[in-house]
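S.,

Sequence below, as promised.
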Amino acid sequence: MYKSLHKKIKTEENKKLFWGDLHLMDELFEYSDILNAPFQAFSGNWKHVKPHWHYFTEMVYLVKGKLLAEVEKNKYTLTPGDMIIFHPKQIHSFLDFPSEENEELLFYVIKFDEMILSNTTPGSPKLPKLLDNATNLNTPYNLITAEELQYNPVKLFFENCIWETKHKEFGYDIKVASTISLIITELIRIWLRKGFKFSTKTTFDQ
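The prediction came back faster than expected:
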């Protein structure tokens, strides 16, 4: 009798925790019209962003100043040249970072749905699957340091995406999607050098 009562109480507690977590996730959700706007690229200078999550991938490249980001309760300090990637469904935020008065802050942001990533040749790794595989790891890499990016033109890639998105000349969507694919390719190379192992069963065409 006592065991069944205890089990019932635990079940009710679990239900409350589940629905509480679900309600919290709903409150933190950021909507995006992925079908009509599968990518965004812009610059920013705000220090504080409340915790939120979304179904798209977000990348932030720091140009000037310092940023303190939190991803799933892990804190990362960004300095110029650093980049951070927020994978889909990860709760993330920017926290107020103590800084000198009048210190300039500037960062670039790219948000995108994985469906825009370029396809590769038959038999090669598929970028969306590789990125999804990285997201599902127990400890996915979020911070990419300036040292790791020192030989990659990532800053220029971000600036190109921002320019193309702003001016919307013919073929801009093709150029932006291709450039984002180049950035993701560079990130995956860095992760592989760090020892990431991607399963061939989920990342390659058979």
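Confidence is low (pLDDT under 50) at residues 15-20, 202-206.

Coffee later?
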